[in-house]
Amino acid sequence: MQKTKRRDFLKATVGAAVAMASPWPLTACRGSAQEPPQKINAQVAAIRGDSLDSMTRDAIDALGGIQTVVNKGETVFIKPNFVSFPWAKYNKCFHIGECTKPEIIIAVTEECLKAGAAEVIIGEGSHLPKFEWQYAITLDGSTNLLKEAERLSSLYDGKVTLACLETDSPGWVEVPSRTSLNKIAISSLVANADKVISIPVAKTHSWAQLTLASKNFIGITPLSRYAQLIANTWWNRGTFDHSSPRAIAQVYLDIVKSIKPNLSIIDFSIGIEGNGPSVGQGGTTVNMKKRLGSWLIIASTDIMAADATAARIMSHDTKKVKQLAMGFDMGLGRIREQSIEILGEKLDNLRVEWKPARLRGHKAKG
User: Fold this and answer.
1) How far is the C-alpha of 255 from the C-alpha of 190, rounded, in Å?
2) pLDDT tens across 320-334, in order?
3) Which ranges in the chain belong to alpha helices (H)?
4) CB-based contacts of 283: which residues, under 8 Å, 6+ apart?
5) Neighbours of 16 (CB within 10 A)
6) Tens of pLDDT along 69-121?
7) Nearest partner of 172 among 224, 129, 244, 132, judged by Cα
8) Domains plus CATH for the chain?
9) 189 SS3 class
10) Which of 93, 131, 100 is nearest to 234 (CA)?
């Protein structure tokens, strides 16, 4: 299989945009999010259980195995949602549903190394310029990401790198944007990776409606360029327009358009409902073992199909979730239920009550 470096794609994309004096070709935007009737053209694996490690591996296998995504010698970037991880020493962010569970990240990392990845980078931006990775502890307390990165690096030919993007990114690459910013900087660790995997935790969001696989990529942008210091304690990406779900969606969907993530795995173990994305902002913890009877992992190589399926599981009306229609119109993936095949489970058996967020359009929140 011939490989095209993500960095080469980004250069080509930026060059074309500059040449046309527009962030995106006019033909890139379709007129409607209503797809015509058609055959199945996206798959989402849905695996239930109580072991996040085995569930994650089973979901990947259901899609054909990690070897259909990752090739030998490639660099893989894994993006979890670690929104409140900088305070993990104190806030139990994994147990209350704010952050992606380390068990899932570890399983995906090992699968990539088994496929022959030369390097797996686990990276996030969050709200502080550095992290203490030893506090990314599994739910059972048995291990953490720092130990696992060392262990896996010793077991396989490839290496595992933990990256706090603000301080560990060698540079920043600008990608085109339809927003008034015209371009958005993202970490070179993502831009230069051969493959990109998004691993969010399922949550509602008071400014974006839902924060899932596509919204996850806000965290690969630099605090130094887009954030302000709040109460002299944490950084908030307030430069991005949060005045409506559509406004903030344009930011992260433009990023997704450029980097083209290869795999999305959504953590439906313990998440957040109501006024998320965190408990401190008014969200409430949801444990799917109590609501569904088991934990759930969903996975897809189509990022919009993953997000649309997640929204349906959360009993949200997908026609009212702005990011879904916008992502489809931008050609980022499928959202129509009839176009998506659920592997392993029936969708109706996965739907649960999940309180929506009360939207608070505000430019100062991120």
Assistant:
1) 11
2) 999 999 999 999 999
3) 6-19, 52-62, 88-91, 102-114, 145-155, 165-168, 188-191, 223-226, 245-259, 288-291, 303-313, 322-329
4) 97, 98, 203, 204, 272, 273, 274, 275, 276, 277, 357
5) 13
6) 999 999 999 999 999 999 999 999 999 999 999 999 999 999 999 999 999 99
7) 224
8) 44-349 (3.40.50)
9) helix
10) 131
